[in-house]
Specification:
- The chain contains 2 helices and 3 strands.
- It is an alpha+beta fold.
- Strands 1-2-3 form a 3-stranded antiparallel sheet.
- Helix 1 packs across helix 2.
- The chain is globular.
- It starts with a strand and ends with a helix.
Length: 76
């Protein structure tokens, strides 16, 4: 089984700008936290078809990867 989003929280990043901290849980029991800036966070919500961050729980890590990649490509 692939990694899934297990927890999401809002945190203050550089200079107090809000970002999402997405916790991924892997099938082997491992965990990893991934910070997402506003652009990537918005893309993640849209990709998963949800309006609230709590609704991201259980979604595949693939959405996180694609949100980061899309936000990077948009700014470069």
């Amino acid at each position: 089984m692939a990694a899934v989003i297990s927890k999401v929280r809002i945190a203050a990043a550089h200079e107090g700008i809000a970002e999402l901290i997405v916790s991924l849980e892997f099938s082997n029991g491992g965990h990893s936290d991934v910070p997402l800036d506003q652009g990537a966070g918005t893309r993640l919500l849209r990709s998963c078809g949800v309006d609230e961050i709590d609704e991201l729980i259980g979604q595949s890590w693939v959405h996180v990867r694609d949100a980061i990649s899309g936000a990077y490509n948009e700014t470069n």
